[in-house]
Structure formats: C-alpha cells, structure tokens
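Sorry to interrupt, but I need a hand with the structure work. Leave the record below and I will have a look:
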Amino acid sequence: MDRMKRGLALLLTGAALAGTMSGCGSVSAGHDVTYELSGLKKGETVMTVDGVAVDAEDYLFLLGQAVSAQDQMGALTGDDAWTTAGDDGTTLAQQVKQTALEQASFYQAIRNKADEYGVALTDDQQAELDQQFTDLESRFQEQGVDLQLALDAQGVSQDGLLRYAQISYLASDLLDKLKEEGELDPTDEDMDTYLEENGIYRVKHILLSTRKENEDGSYTDFSDAEQAKVKAEADALVAELKAVPADQREKVFTEKMEERSDDSGSQSSPDGYTATPGQMVSEFEEASQALAVGEISDPVKSRFGYHIILRLDADTDETREGWAQSRFSDLMRQWSETAVVEQKDCYDAIDPQDFYTKLLAKQSAYQQALQAAAKAKESASPAPEESGAPEAADSSAPEASPAA
C-alpha cells in the first residue's frame, strides 16, 4: 500500500502506458486527453461495480498499464499479436481488456467497501496527496516542461491520478477499521494454520564462530584444532542449558546469548529471529524447524560456526499482524471477485491497439519536449571557467564491510 502513496511520482516517471478505444461519446468541452485518445469523454461510464460507476478515464489508465506490461515483456511483436489467439483461445487485445477490467473492479470494490464502513481520506491524507502533486508540478516547471503534457503522456488527468493514488489510503484505513472492530483478530487455530502454511518459525541462537575476519573483509576458517576447541565449548554449553528447568530456559539462554554469542545481529533482535523458509542458511533452518517449542538443539555447524538454537513460540504480536495483513488481502480479493460487474455498450468498442498507438504518440511528444527543454537549458547556461585546481583523486580507502 505504501507504494501506491508514492504513486504520483512513480506513475509520471515510470514505464509507458498503453491502450486504445474508438468512437463512443461526443466531443468534450475543454482539454480531455481521454477523449483525444479514445473518443470517450472523461467521466463517461464504461462499467459498474455493484452498481457504482467506473468512468472511462479510470479504466483507460489501467488498460494503459496492462498493455505497457505486455509491451515490456515483448508480446507486441506486430499487428498480428493483437488478434492472434493464444493457447487459452483469447487474443492479446482481449487479455489486456480483461486485466484492466479486473483491476478496475478491484479498486472500485475497495472504494465501495470504504463507503460501506464510513472510511474516507482524512484532511491530513488529502493534504499529503496535494503536496505530492504540488511537488511534481514544481519539478516539471524546473525541467521547462508543462505538467499537462506529462499527464497526457500517461493518459490521465490530475483528478484521475489523484483518485488512483487515494486507493492506498482507503485500503490502509479500511485495514485499521476492521482491526478496531475486531474483524481481523485471529483465533489460536487461525494462527496455528497461518504459521504452518507459511513455514514461520521463531528462534534464539548462540553462535560460536569458527572463523576470523580479515582486514579486507574476507574470512579465514579456524584450524581444525581451533574448531575442535569451539565444538567442545558448544557441547558443554548445550549440556548446561539443557539442564535448566523448562520454565527458566529462555531466561538463562538469553543471558548466555548476551554473554557469549558471536552473532552481532542478536543485539538488534533480542527477542529472537522470526523467519520463513529460505531466509536462513540451510543447516540452521533445518535444525530450527526440527525442534519443538522450548527445545534446545545440539551444536549445529554452518559456515559461520556452531549454532545452539532455542525454538520459541512464533505466535507473537508481529506474526498476528502478519495474519491480519494476509487476511485483509484475502478480503480485498473476495470483495472484487464477488462484486457484480457490468460493462456498458461503449466498453465493447474499446480498441487497445488504437489507444496504445495514440498514447505512444503522446509519450513521444512528451519525450521530445523534455529533450528540447534540456537543450534550451544547456544553451542558456554559461560555459564553466577553467580551473587550475587538480581533480579529486580516486580514494584507495576500502569501503566499510558489514559485520558477520
């Protein structure tokens, strides 16, 4: 969701959009890039989601993204690419229209649900979005390019772009609303299922290193005799820890970890590591997952040294928040999938190939304007004076290396 809050900047500087439509609607008054590209007026309804209208601009904006994605993947190899049926029997033109339809349904379903729960943008959120747009406008002014031209190159108006960016805030506020009302409180069974399905586990460990760091940041393994000494220490420590009563085990383990562990990361994660498959080295991961909660491993050897691992309960505030986020994502998909979506007659007239061709022309004009503005700025800048000062020499100092 955070990425959508930054959508204004990303959408205007990202990859080209795509799409096209033909002939439905009358000439609009004033500047309307939607009409220029498609023949549909901005604000004209192309579909409804549970009876709520989605206008042409919103749909075309998403259609443009869908076609652009196909273009970047190399799917637009020629005119035939639009009309040739694939293995599933659908053409590329049909695929991008369906993708945009599903995305438009998804976003409108969120808006509808926000209305149902009484969720709306706060004044602070709206001010943040307005400021983002003001910053964009200033940036384009500095480049000597009209912001309207940049918007046209994306096939969207200022209102349309702001409307799209609002989705992130609505979704985030909906999540908070459902939490407040207790609709995203997992049961213990929910958590057991979530942790198991995602392979989530939590551990603390004591690392007894079997290597030393060199000045250049590389590592040299201890000699066999030195490693044997470390292994003996690890065995003795395991025996000591396993003798501790179960109700005192984590407390004593933590004390030993703080005293002896060579893992500097333990200082920043005093409550242990919560991990999913693939995050840790295989030896560590396999040993951790084989333990029962409260159980301590025998010394486990990895390239870092010997690990002594204590398995902890992974049902924490952090993982419960993860469950809530996952459940909310499922709910948003359900809202979209169960929504009643109806297309208007002019939806059938949408021609992605024609729209994309026109949109590319807009983007070409935008790029040419950027280049012209850059050349004009360069011509207006005075030539730098020659200086007798020597250029800065490359530094031979090595970059800092992270700790093991």
